[in-house]
Write a structure and sequence with these properties.
The chain is α/β, with parallel strands linked by helices. It has a single domain, classed as Rossmann fold (3-Layer(aba) Sandwich), CATH 3.40.50. It is built from 7 helices and 10 strands. It has an 8-stranded mixed sheet. Strands 6-7 form a two-stranded antiparallel ribbon. Strand 9 and strand 10 form a beta hairpin. 43% of the residues are buried. This is Methenyltetrahydrofolate synthase domain-containing protein. Keywords: RNA-binding. One of its GO terms (molecular function) is RNA binding. It holds the Pfam family 5-FTHF_cyc-lig.
Amino acid sequence: GVSKQDIREQIWGYMESQNLADFPRPVHHRIPNFKGSYLACQNIKDLDVFARTQEVKVDPDKPLEGVRLLVLQSKKTLLVPTPRLRTGLFNKITPPPGATKDILRKCATSQGVRNYSVPIGLDSRVLVDLVVVGSVAVSEKGWRIGKGEGYADLEYAMMVSMGAVSKETPVVTIVHDCQVVDIPEELVEEHDITVDYILTPTRVIATGCKRPKPMGITWFKIR
């Protein structure tokens, strides 16, 4: 049978060999950035769930930069997880008053996340309306494969534990079309986060995923 790692290697290899990958390269062992990521990010504006949101959690991955910028431009609250959860869970991005487009663009980059943010503790009252995660591979059914370190799953579980998300909170991922593949259901584990919407440069896919999302931290999975 095929493993999650087999699927990852296949996608990373294909994106590099077809020159679909974008900086930082090579994309192996990361959430791959791709040519057209900004275009894919723009599709979030077509989702009703985005229009209704106030607080959006977006992962710090490079291909999600366009969504982080849109959240800031839409005057919504942007929460970005601390890389590898080293210093707590979230940073709230706080652009300076009267920030220009250029400053907002900087705020949306990984450097901006470091320079224009305040940490949010686990005991803070946070209510996240929308979760945006990066993926290495995703299926139209909503199964997701990350880069293999489990941070997106753990962040989601921590948000559940602190009451920041509920099972109704939509999860969106942004990928290149070639990252939408069949994933055998037996590879999906109970701690794996599933996705409700997949945005690519050419498509908006509503997965209609009915599988319950993780409802807390699976402690035995934490090494």
